[in-house]
Fold each of these.
Amino acid sequence: MAIRIDWIVFLIIAVALLEGATSETKYKVGDDGGWRVPDNKSYYENWVGGKKFEVGDSLEFNWTDTHNVLEVTTKTEYDACAKTNGILKDTSPATFQLTKDGTYYYICTIGMHCDFGQKVTIVVGNGSSSSPPTSMPNNHAALSAVLSTITIVAASLVHLSSFLLY
Ligand SMILES: [Cu+2]
């Protein structure tokens, strides 16, 4: 019996580790600085720094003064601070889910904010939407589910055998 319980403990730990490995990251854009007209134009570029954005992560834009977030669709629009197409969110906090690989462009459309550097480019995966979606999270989730099921079945068997034996 002791051996079986050890095995179950191992499985529970394995499941916990897998779930930890697949946890989705919620990024607060600009961290404590939030979403604002930055002191220098490379502020958000620096914030992105070496971050590795993955499918399933999300971005949260927080602001207090008058701002908004427009997701523009091309680098050309982004570079020109074009306030035309795209998803506009004007209530803080504004959350964007990163649902697939690609390069995402966000700007503020208020006044000259974007021109002053209130803009950020987020690269998810390899930055290209034409690449096959990352299957790792799904595999992990599936494996995790299987291990959870095994754990439950094993626990039931232990329960059943103790019932039969004693
Ligand atoms: Cu703004």
Amino acid sequence: MTIIKNLIPKLSFIVVSIFIIVGCSNSEQEESKKVASHPSDIAVLINKEFRLPENYVPNDLVYPDVPFIFNEKIEKRQMRKEPAEALKRMFEAAKSDGIHLAGVSGYRSEAAQTRLYNNYVSKDGVEEADRYSARPGHSEHQTGLSIDVSGITGEFAVEDQFANTEEAKWLDKHAHEYGFIIRFPKGKEDITGYKYKPWHIRYVGKDIATEIHEKGITLEEYYGKYSI
Ligand SMILES: [Zn+2]
């Protein structure tokens, strides 16, 4: 036993050393980012600092029974089961208020995020792309808990002008009642790391969503973490 006890600290030193060496040789410095230890927790914090384990795929993806702005049964039409059911309840409530919502983009695999981010970088450069697009492994869409939403016509989908629509106003007022938050609110770019995205909602469950909504804070502030 004594031998084993003495060996364990040495072994962990070796493991840590390997990690540091690998980390320094990686030009993207991804190894220095923190990996979420409970990626399937509905309140998981994923941002520029915390990433998902490599190629994480949620194990309960379903097709939410709500309209989308496209017809195909493809990857981005999926979400995890719990948020998918909450989304259906929310879309039905909106409908009874005369607001017709549609899904634009839900779950996104790490491979899809890599393609998307690289396209944005070649179009706008790294600095600008980082303001609106997550790096691979850092997207909430990969958690299966987030979805971009628009009106049923798809007008202003994932565009700044969406903020002025009745659909955006309804979401801002009611999303928390169904467990969703506007993940990247106006004026919080220095905390979330992203510009205002009134269309990007994130499921965190009703209790946390209500607290975040009532306090006018972000998920980072909810956890007391400001660094990004
Ligand atoms: Zn989004």
